[in-house]
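ARCHIVE CARD
CATEGORY: sequence design from structure
SOURCE FIELD: tokenized fold
FIELD CONTENT:
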């Protein structure tokens, strides 16, 4: 893969992975529009890890807090003592509960993702499917204008809420359904406040992105010559662009303007339908 091609694909991945416009839908449509081939497997793994790095950087405080609370809990179990009070028992228990919510939400995501991964067919390469589902994503985003004012903070998310959001994230494996857009929209309609909706959506994306990278890596049998350089470029670019896109999206969500991405989704969706019609 040429370095310029790796740079462009890494930037596209970084932008579309976090902005609510569906990275997989864009890939399907771009492949048909420009005759682009699917990225090499190593490159695919690398850009996923790059976007994972962007999430870890933006939400490093939440991730570090969860990691410390988990470490204290493990230490307490092994030593037979009460959890360490470095963060305070209340803070530690809240962060452990958040970890539990992320784990609970990941269950339906993993079940749907694995099932579809092994049963995937030509529908996943269809610009018609991607186009129509991008229209659906645009409708989800527009609907957030009517979402009730959320009062649930991150500590108030219920187990049922986590399962519903995880289910929506699993459905987003279909090209054209935006993971970030659909999960944040679902959280808003469950009465979760904007900042908490965005934070939980992207914390929940961590095991999802890592799992997707591992699934792709499982099919990696050999590394083509020169692929490592392209993979490194893609990872670095997707991480940098993804970081900027993620910060921008959180800003937009906190101002209740997630719907501004709907017209773009409809335009790209219409392009996908048009491509399918003229083939």
């Amino acid at each position: 893969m040429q370095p310029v091609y790796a740079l462009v694909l890494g930037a596209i991945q970084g932008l579309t992975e976090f902005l609510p416009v569906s990275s997989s839908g864009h890939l399907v449509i771009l492949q048909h529009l420009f005759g682009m081939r699917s990225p090499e497997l190593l490159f695919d793994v690398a850009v996923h890890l790059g976007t994972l790095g962007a999430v870890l950087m933006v939400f490093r405080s939440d991730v570090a807090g969860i990691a410390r609370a988990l470490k204290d809990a493990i230490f307490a179990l092994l030593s037979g003592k009460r959890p360490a009070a470095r963060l305070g028992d209340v803070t530690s228990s809240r962060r452990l509960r958040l970890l539990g919510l992320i784990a609970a939400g990941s269950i339906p995501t993993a079940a749907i993702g694995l099932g579809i991964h092994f049963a995937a067919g030509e529908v996943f390469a269809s610009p018609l499917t991607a186009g129509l589902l991008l229209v659906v994503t645009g409708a989800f985003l527009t609907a957030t204008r009517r979402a009730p004012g959320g009062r649930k903070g991150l500590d108030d998310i219920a187990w049922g809420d986590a399962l519903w959001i995880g289910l929506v994230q699993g459905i987003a494996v279909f090209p054209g359904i935006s993971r970030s857009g659909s999960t944040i929209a679902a959280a808003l309609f469950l009465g979760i406040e904007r900042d908490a909706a965005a934070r939980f959506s992207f914390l929940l994306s961590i095991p999802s992105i890592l799992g997707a990278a591992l699934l792709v890596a499982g099919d990696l049998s050999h590394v083509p010559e020169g692929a490592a350089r392209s993979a490194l470029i893609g990872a670095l670019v997707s991480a940098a662009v993804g970081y900027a896109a993620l910060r921008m999206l959180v800003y937009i969500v906190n101002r209740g303007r997630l719907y501004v991405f709907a017209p773009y989704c409809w335009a790209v969706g219409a392009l996908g339908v048009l491509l399918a019609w003229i083939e």
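CARD ANNOTATION: The mean pLDDT is 85. The chain has one domain: 3-61+105-278.
SHELF: design records, drawer C
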